[in-house]
Amino acid sequence: MSHAHSSPDYIPETAFGDWFLQTPTWDVHVLEVALRDLDPLMPARRASYPVVIDVGCGWGRSLRKLNDRFRPDRLIGFDIAPKMVEAAAREVAELRTANGSPAEVIRASSAALPLADASVDLLFCHQTFHHLVDQDGAIAEFFRVLKPGGTLLFAESTRRYIHSWIIRLLFRHPMEVQKTAPEYLALVRAAGFVVPDSQVSYPFLWWSREDLGLMERVLRIKPPTVREETLINLVATRPEVDGHGLCLDVIKPDGKASTIAP
């Protein structure tokens, strides 16, 4: 008799990956740069977002940054890896939100968050999807927990980067689920989110290049303008609900959003 084996929810990091995620390089050149890139893409940026969550918070370095930027009353970091949950909880042990509440760190799958429907104002997901096996389940869960009008900040490495020789050598990922930048954008839009082209960025950062940017920094050779992108950052919105039912935001061929009422 054959036995079916369930796929893991995620692929754990290598020892090198665990170390790298705790370095100043990660904090300054990856995490902070992504947040600075995403911020101006946000439509109608508010001074505060009452409930903010980070799905795939890792070692917890993002939580203080999110607390400072978005001033939530409730801040939650989620991760599936027990060692990262423990480390993140230590990282934010003294952190307090705008109303004095402690930050929370909870172990959970990105596709099964222990949150009520429409309960989150802002969801941050940074460099997490390329570790996930069930990407469709995760993006559907993001849509479920965000409030109508809620914001998704999504920053991800693409297949071009994850399949590069240096990443294959140093890290470990579920290679069969990796996506191109257009495929990630299509995934988010297909889940029901509104993502105008004006809210998408394709940074070509030195660390996302196979040569680590040496060709440009040392030899002064500019990267090609036509290339397969290595990174995609986007700001998505769950469509609003009004008193007459769901208002549907649709993306037109020119990348602009328009709203129609059914």
In a few lines, what is going on in this structure?
The chain has helices spanning 15-20, 24-38, 61-70, 82-91, 135-145, 159-162, 165-170, 181-190, 214-217; strands at 51-55, 74-79, 104-107, 120-126, 146-157, 200-201, 231-237, 241-242, 245-246, 248-251, 257-260. The protein is an alpha/beta fold and 262 residues long. The strands form three sheets. It has a seven-stranded mixed β-sheet with strand order 3-2-1-4-5-7-6, sandwiched between helices. A two-stranded antiparallel ribbon has the order 8-9.
Query: How much is the radius of gyration in Å?
Result: 19 Å
The fraction of residues in strands falls at: 15-25%
Question: Could you list the spans in which at least 5 consecutive residues all have pLDDT below 50?
Answer: 1-6, 242-262
- What characterizes the major β-sheet? 7 strands, mixed
Number of β-strand runs: 11
- For the record, what CATH class applies? Alpha Beta
Number of DSSP helical runs? 9
CATH homologous superfamily - what is it? Vaccinia Virus protein VP39
CATH topology: Rossmann fold
User: How many discrete structural domains?
Assistant: 1
Structural class of the secondary elements?
A: alpha/beta
Helix content: 25-40%
Instruction: Provide mean pLDDT, rounded.
Output: 87
Second-tier CATH architecture: 3-Layer(aba) Sandwich
- C-alpha end-to-end distance: 52 Å
